[in-house]
Design a protein that fits this description.
Radius of gyration: 16 Å
Strand content: under 5%
Shape: globular
Length: 127
């Protein structure tokens, strides 16, 4: 696997990270914090990986979706409590509460990724 830095995806990942931090620090409202933050985190993770290697779009997007579902299932089983994680930052990252709506948010993020990448591919073909 050959690493190749992609500035566009790196900038997108950085901007999304800044937005996620703002959502976490400044409470906004429940919908933005609990739902939109989960939609954006899928896109953030995708952009992070695409900034270092040109992964297959569908495979990477699906892998990120599966990873997010796996983390949500760990929350269902209270993994942070089982492992006695005390660090507040790690507890925020791993999450502590399972929500069915998070699965929907992750799926919406996945669809946005596929839609954006498909649209971007079409635009490149039209040039």
């Amino acid at each position: 696997m050959k690493l190749k830095f992609n500035l566009k995806y790196a900038v997108a990942a950085f901007i999304l990270l800044c937005i996620e931090i703002c959502i976490a620090v400044f409470y906004f409202n429940q919908f933005i914090r609990d739902f939109m933050g989960d939609v954006l985190v899928i896109i953030l993770i995708y952009c992070f990986f695409k900034s270092f290697y040109n992964f297959n779009t569908k495979k990477l997007a699906f892998a990120v979706l599966l990873f997010s579902f796996f983390v949500e299932m760990l929350q269902y089983f209270h993994i942070a409590d089982i492992l006695n994680i005390q660090n507040k930052v790690i507890r925020i990252i791993t999450g502590t509460a399972f929500e069915y709506t998070d699965l929907l948010a992750y799926f919406i993020g996945y669809i946005i990724i596929l839609g954006f990448e498909y649209h971007h591919k079409i635009l490149n073909l039209c040039r």
